[in-house]
Write a structure and sequence with these properties.
Layout lengths: L2 H4 L7 E3 L2 E4 L2 E2 L6 E2 L10 E4 L2 H14 L21 H12 L12 H12 L4 H8 L4 H8 L7 H12 L3
Antiparallel strand pairs: 1-2, 2-5, 3-4
Helix pairs in contact: 5-6
């Protein structure tokens, strides 16, 4: 997810045990919930939802409640969305306090790259990853993550050698 989409996570958008539907984001300029970037009103993306993430979302909702199903809200005005900068501010505070061992250079957005990298290195089709990331076309995903995709050259050479042996 993009950070603005993460700030708009809604418990109601868990549409299956393993699917979270991204329908909106917190717009950086207005600070309000808005349609997804580069999407028409009503368009959405269905994302894979690991059981651990689903359980954490549900735990957080049980512990802190929701407003309209939204998990993260403005700390001083719960009826408002979480400000776009708040996640990064909290991340910096946690990192500075040494509460968690955060590698140098790692930012919240790194989790998005972690997701894409793991999918591609485990042979999830790039077309699916492109859709999940919300890229408008496969070229963006390919240019960013090509170096992580397993090479098929060796497999192709082995297959061709095997079939050429019988000739």
């Amino acid at each position: 997810m993009h950070n603005g989409e993460a700030a708009a996570v809604n418990l109601r958008n868990i549409v299956a045990d393993d699917v979270h539907r991204i329908t909106e984001q917190v717009n950086q300029t207005t600070g309000h919930y808005a349609r997804l970037k580069h999407r028409k009103t009503g368009e959405y993306r269905d994302m894979p939802l690991p059981a651990r993430v689903k359980n954490t979302i549900e735990w957080y909702a049980d512990k802190h409640g929701t407003v309209g199903g939204h998990l993260l809200r403005h700390p001083k005005a719960p009826s408002r969305p979480l400000p776009h900068y708040y996640l990064n501010n909290q991340w910096q505070r946690i990192k500075k306090a040494g509460e968690v061992d955060v590698p140098d250079g790692m930012v919240i957005y790194s989790y998005r790259h972690f997701f894409a990298s793991n999918c591609l290195t485990h042979n999830i089709p790039i077309t699916d990853v492109t859709e999940w990331l919300g890229h408008n076309n496969i070229d963006v995903t390919f240019k960013t993550y090509r170096h992580l995709m397993p090479s098929s050259r060796s497999t192709a050479a082995t297959t061709l050698n095997h079939h050429l042996e019988g000739i």
